[in-house]
Write a structure and sequence with these properties.
Layout: E1 12-14, E2 26-31, H1 41-55, E3 63-67, H2 71-83, E4 87-92, H3 97-105, E5 109-113, H4 118-132, E6 137-138, H5 146-163, E7 170-174, H6 179-191, E8 196-202, E9 231-235, H7 237-251, H8 257-270, E10 278-283, H9 295-304
Parallel strand pairs: 2-10, 3-4, 3-6, 4-5, 7-8, 7-10, 8-9
Antiparallel strand pairs: 1-2
Helix pairs in contact: 1-2, 1-5, 5-6, 7-8
Length: 309
């Protein structure tokens, strides 16, 4: 099997314990941590790089450059190794140490940017360098590259439809570039216009849910359409942390913070839905990228006090 074929066709798993409190509503999740580099971002990175090669914009001698909160950068680094291209990533300095270590281990050059400027600062810095040296760099520009959302239109959406036997009623996930949400939702609505697409975003510009954007306070991706979602659910950082711990301890799924935010939002949504509803969300990456985060130890302390987390 070619290495690139390890991207996509991820399992869809039922969260039986998490959704047990719901009356006749089930929650399922795409295990995107099973992709080649370990996150949902592999799908878009693969599509953008292969399109770059096909168009001739990415050719031998060029370096792949882009901004990332971590996961897309890791995907570029792994795929750059496979395809034979060096990679340079602009990354907010407050990204988890695990992400920085993985990037270094995969051979990527990392430039850390002002954490107070979040992903916007990294984006503007990568843009400036890419535009200053177009002969040296291939800039996929994940926030404005239609190959990003099309990757999910062509793969994630059809996979969800097939894996649920056409039974999915609601698709809900957080947004960073919004590629997963926009692409998968568009395709699912083509299969069945009655499917509801719900977008998740942090409840504050200052939050701890890595890889997600508070759209009202940041530079919006070019392909994001704020009028497209059927609804929005705001994710609280502490609730996302708590759900991340629950997923590990109740479902055996050791995933990251954005996954916790997605599942908490799916649970909140499920409480409002009639029996027979089938919600699908996304487990974006692995918990191994967040081992240094303090919420794991805080959760341990709370558990010892009898919280039931």
């Amino acid at each position: 099997m070619p290495v690139l074929d390890l991207i996509g066709n991820t399992p869809l798993v039922e969260l039986k314990k998490i959704s047990s409190e719901l009356a006749g509503v089930s929650i399922w999740a795409k295990a995107e941590f099973r992709n080649l580099s370990g996150s949902v971002k592999d799908r878009a990175a693969k599509a953008m790089l292969l399109e770059g090669i096909e168009s001739g914009r990415l050719r031998p001698g060029k370096t792949i450059i882009d901004a990332s909160s971590g996961n897309t950068g890791i995907a570029y680094a792994v795929l750059g190794a496979v395809l034979g291209y060096p990679v340079k990533i602009y990354l907010p300095a407050n990204a988890s140490q695990e992400r920085k270590t993985i990037l270094a281990c995969c051979g990527a050059e990392v430039v850390e940017t002002n954490p107070l400027e979040s992903s916007d600062g990294a984006f503007l810095a990568a843009k400036a360098e890419a535009e200053a040296k177009p002969e040296h760099y291939f800039w996929p520009n994940q926030y404005n590259n239609d190959a990003n959302w099309r990757a999910h239109y062509n793969t994630t959406g059809p996979e969800i439809w097939e894996q649920t036997g056409g039974g999915v009623t609601h698709f809900i996930t957080g947004m960073g570039t919004s590629g997963t949400f926009m692409g998968a939702s568009r395709r699912l609505k083509e299969f069945n216009p009655d499917i509801r697409a719900i977008a998740v975003q942090p409840d504050s510009p200052f939050h701890g849910i890595e890889g997600t954007k508070h759209m009202a306070s940041t530079i919006n991706p070019g392909f994001y359409d704020p009028a497209f979602p059927d609804g929005f659910i705001e994710a609280n950082t502490e609730a996302a942390y708590a759900m991340t711990v629950r997923l590990a301890r109740e479902e055996g799924l050791f995933v990251g913070i954005s996954s916790g935010a997605n599942v908490q939002a799916a649970l909140d949504l499920g409480r409002t839905l009639p029996p027979g509803s089938l919600i699908v969300t996304v487990l974006c990456d692995s918990g191994f990228r967040y081992l240094s985060d303090t919420f794991w130890s805080v959760a341990e302390q709370v558990e010892g006090e009898g919280s039931g987390i």
